[in-house]
Amino acid sequence: MSIVGLSAVDLLETMRSGDISAVDVTTAHLDVIAKREPEVHAFLHIDSDGALAQAEVVDRKRKAGGTLGSLAGIPVAIKDVICTVGQPTTCGSKMLENYRSPFDAYVIERLRAADAVLIGKTNLDEFAMGSSTENSAYQPTCNPWDLSKTPGGSSGGSAAAVAAEMVPLSLGTDTGGSIRQPAGFCGIVGMKPTYGRVSRYGLVAFASSLDQIGPMAHDTRDAALLLEAIAGHDRRDTTSIPQPVPSYSANLEEPLKDLKIGVPFQHFGEGLDSEVSDAVNASLDAYQQLGATVVEISLPYLSYSVAAYYLIAPSEASSNLARYDGVHYGHRAKDFDDLIDMYAASRGEGFGSEVKRRIMLGTYALSAGYYDAYYLKALKVRRLIRNDFDKAFEEVDIIASPVSPTPAFNLGEFANDPLAMYLADIFTLSGNLAGIPGMSIPAGFSSKGLPIGLQLQGPPLSEDKLLRGARMYERESDWKQKRPLLS
Ligand code: GLN
């Protein structure tokens, strides 16, 4: 029977029935990785031996009649910015080329407790800064639907690995769109949970007030399952929300009654690809067929989100990345004259150009004399953006929009224009600034066969509702059945 391409939910069922073992599942996925990785470059590290050993443990437990976790025997790929014992954690940076974490991130502890198989670490933009994986110090990842295109970023490796059927599930992180945008570009489901819903303990920090870990999968059922496994309160992350986690899978098939969808049409103008807006409009029609009401809403401050984000995120990054000085953490240069020169040389060699740009932008915005004008002002705008959402959610249940203004762009397209790449984050950044959950679900294809994503956002802790709302549409559309044809 064919194992590859099945959803995690179906794989679990088949393993339970005894038709296949966890070792069969892991072996089949390792075979796909061996075949497709030379084209896709989704991984920075593949732990074949470790994965097979974990799968064997699951099979032994099952044979002995032991209790198994909710992801028993399911291969999961981990974005390489999440600390994982026994595997490298490089953050896609030369700075951490030799780093081996002595501890597991909270989400990794949870995945191990769920008996998942940690098959490897996926490629990303260095320290998760970027939208294309091209800022990785090691390799760019290619979009499985068209190898000349980017899979998006920064969780491009995690998205491509699922889209290319190398794994059924992966973890990404989203500071400004890094789960949703690559999910959209690769035709899969990706969710950024509410800030604080998933513990950041053991996630290497980029911008701590925005970072969130979330699930990436072929469909909403699998995303719900993975979110259930990783969400929850954790004392080691002081921003972790002490609210019980509902069973996202339990009510997933129940459609939302009287669903009211708000759409900020005013932002659908300039720069939005017509095929993207057609796909979004078609999905809104589909929702109306399902009984939902679609109304226009206003998010007046949304257009300031790019400016606010690209001050706040680099400011936090400049502070977080100060620890990589060759003494506390990270690469240390071999040739230097004195202490200051050692810091400068280590950081100069260890960081790539985009990370350096962010550190400089952030240091500038935080410096005396500019703090009030830039950083503090951006924080005030952030509050106004959150107010916009709060007001909108008094009237509507869910907000729908494009994920990105265009389908996946060419690798190298923005190599000399970082600002143009920043601007393309317009639809996702505001969700991080406001701390609200959002997801990308497949909503069609461009004439060139590239996936187009629909973004759904909800009020804080509405993951349950978002997943159910997404599932309503997913059940009616067959986008998730389509898979890329790799050579
Ligand atoms: N593209 C955005 C950036 O480069 C978001 C990155 C992210 O979410 N990690 O900052």
Unreliable sequence segments: none
What's the helical proportion of residues? Answer: 25-40%
The beta-strand count equals 11
Strand-residue proportion: 5-15%
* N-to-C series of helices and strands: HHEHEHEHEHEEHEHEHHHHEHHEEH
Topology-level CATH name of the domain at 8-255: Amidase signature (AS) enzymes
CATH H-level homologous superfamily name of the domain at 8-255: Amidase signature (AS) domain
Tally of DSSP helical segments: 15
Gyration radius, in Å: 21 Å
Describe the structure.
By secondary structure, this protein is of the alpha/beta class. It has a domain at 8-255: Amidase signature (AS) enzymes, CATH 3.90.1300.10. Helix content is 39%, strand content 12%. It has 15 helices and eleven strands. Helix 2 (22-40) runs antiparallel to helix 3 (48-63), helix 5 (156-163) runs parallel beside helix 6 and helix 7 (220-230) packs antiparallel against helix 15. The mean pLDDT is 97. The protein binds glutamine. Glutamine (GLN) binds next to loops. Glutamine binds at residues 128-131, 154, 174-178, 206, 313, 425.
